[in-house]
Amino acid sequence: MSDVATCEVSPVAPAAAAGELADVVGMSLFLGSGAVLFGSLLMSYAMLRAQQPVWPPAGCPPPPLLMAAANTLVLAVSSVSMAHAQVLAASGLRCVGALCATMTLGVLFLVLQLPVWSALQAAPQFGLMRSVFLLLAGCHALHLAAGLGALAWVLPGALAGESSRHPLAARVRLCAMFWHFLGVAWAALFLTVFVF
Amino acid sequence: MHDAHHAEPTGFLSRVVFSRDHKVIAKQFLLLGLLFLGLGGILALLIRWQLAFPGKPVPIVGQYLFSATAGAISPEGYTMLFTMHGTIMIFFAITPMLIGAFGNLCIPLMIGARDMAFPLLNMLSFWVAAASGVVLAGSFFVEGGAAMAGWTAYPPLSGATATPGLGQTLWAVSLFLGGVSTLMGAINYVTTILMLRAPGMGFFRMPLSVWGLGLAAVLNILFVPVIAAALLMLILDRVANTGFFVSGAQPGSAGDPLLFQHLFWIFGHPEVYILILPAWGIVSDLLAVFSRKPAFGFKATAIAMSSIVVLSTVVYGHHMYTVGLSPGLGKAFMSLTMLISIPSSVLFLNWLGTIWRGSIRLEPAMLFALGVVFVFGMGGLTGLFLGAITTDIYLHDTAFVVGHFHYTMAASVLFGSLAAIYFWFPKMFGRMLCPELARLHFWFTFLPLNLVFFPMLIEGYGGMPRRLYEPTSYKYLVQFQPVNQLITFAAMVLGLAQLIFVWNVVRSLWAGERAPANPWEATTLEWLTPSPPPHENFDVIPEVHRGPHEHSRPDVPDRDWIGQWESQAPAAPQTPPAPPADSEAVAV
């Protein structure tokens, strides 16, 4: 994603800066479209829910609030460790520990959801609650798995110290943007699906 | 991190197949689009055969394609044909040609960049598109055949009960992949335009083609995720027994089929503009080049296109007047829809202003650009009848709708693509196309095309429903059977005429005259490079000194154009007005 053919003729440093800026712009556009995706899903959920006389629908168990609260806490802490990793990388310090902490918390997030996913097997087919969870939490979990993949892509560079071609700080910053986005998306899900 | 120059790859795979060079990716998209255009055209001819000669065996190919029914098209087969024709033409022919091919070719060259901002992402964008095309084409061969729910795939028609086959699921998966590819491309285009413009290339010095392509990319970033959400829910409904669009099938389920229509058209209406904006931009540039005049109202055109982008996001309800919307909502959507005629008229008047008293050169690309002006005018005017609720309720779901959207999406966008091909083919491949064959191609496309789509408007006004299998089964439609046959014959001529184009392209690739750097005496940056441009396009990134259409300036002696890269008019005795060599790229 960061293999930028730049138009600058000037020496490497400003060209690299322009390339990093392009990466940030590209990532922002990507997150913008991600926001539209989650927005569309939430809007669909709102439209279906608004047509129901009661919520949760009759016969549906209430959403697992405890699990979701634990998940929210885990993801919030992981955002802090991600931000810490970004600060460390930006000042040229080793950020392996903070990255590993973020990844561990990300995995923990997915593990905490496992009981709910297995309980879904027993839920009535076509049930609205089941559908909504499958769609919203499922879509978020897939994106989070992709975020873990991105962190795994950065990790070797962090272990080896800064590489010359792809400065570590720039990569960590892109990961952090995506990770914080996942946190915000989850916060929206938590509030609309589980709390209210 | 980002070296100014990358070495040109040497292996066959990295140069031709998995290339990251935007010019190679443009050719790959063009080939993909043309192949699917051919396939979609064949499907259209089969649809036309059924409408002109209902139930009669299809000559020649029928015995192979429809062997179970002795060569005749069954109702299911007909439903499949029009579903796949629409899907293929919109998402796999027009999109790869205009946005994939010319977005890739034009954006970096016209803004003076060495390549896209993210070449690897660009390559992935093509290969995901190719994979999605393979999934779609493969769906013809699964049990039960390809998708049958119409290109709009409204539930419950597209639900697991009505269309249980794998084909409909593959359709949804294929469109989802297509969306991923489009999104990758769009992020690349916008980032490239924002970040990689050559020094001096302000937004109002960018050619209108770049404006159109860039605005279409913005719409893609905003609205492809909406259709992706709808497709995700459709796929889950089909394979995971969720109930988003299933209404009342089980206790506790309360899906809503209308939800899909909302999502589909929130995306679908901007999609119309995603396809037409690049064509508008290209036409605006071409009219200026071949009228040897600056584009009339250049800034107004750019602003009009931008305001259409904004308006296109709030008018989708005009596709849903008959689903039972609240009348107040319908009125709001109608008023917003009618507002679009203001910027559209600005565009149209600016085109007429550009050619007004110009020194018109009727090169093939210009013929096709003028063709766009005509057919887009037809499409726009017939759109008014469908945008107004009172007339739409009568015309809804008739052949009038088919005629209208073929004039806008098929005719305008197809002519825009062909104009682009005739204009940039020398730059892409380094060879000139034969202009005589191209003119023949134009007239044998333009005239039959109008004979195909104009009569549809009349049939629709006469009450003929679209997607109709057997028109003669209604007494009041029997009178239209000669019209249906006329359309079918015109469609056959239209189809055959495309062989002229194919022959012209194939002949030129092998034996065409070598193209000079600037065969049209145009002023934008791509004509500064040799034809075809080398790896990384420019030896030295040019500096931009002026707007994109400086033709016929009175203070420029001897020639009627001055390139964006030229700091001042060339000295008076210049013989001949040769395009400047690369060494002159950076002007003093």
Description:
The complex is a heterodimer of chains A (196) and B (588). With 196 residues, chain A is mainly alpha-helical. Chain A has one domain: Four Helix Bundle (Hemerythrin (Met), subunit A) (Up-down Bundle). Helices cover 77% and strands 0% of the residues of chain A. Chain A contains five helices and no strands. Chain A has helices at residues 12-50, 65-90, 96-120, 128-160, 168-195. The radius of gyration of chain A is 20 Å and the shape is elongated. Chain B has 588 residues and is mostly helical. Chain B is built from 16 helices and no strands. In chain B, helix 12 packs parallel to helix 15 (435-461) and helix 14 packs antiparallel against helix 15. The radius of gyration of chain B is 24 Å and the shape is globular. Mean pLDDT of chain B is 92; it is low at 581-588.
Q: Largest interface: which pair?
A: A-B, 52 and 60 residues
Percent range for β-strand residues of chain A:
under 5%
CATH homology superfamily of chain A:
Cytochrome c oxidase, subunit III, four-helix bundle
The arrangement of helices and strands of chain B along the chain is HHHHHHHHHHHHHHHH
User: Structural class, from helix and strand content of chain B?
Assistant: mainly alpha
Give the name of the CATH architecture of chain A: Up-down Bundle
Mean pLDDT of chain B: 92
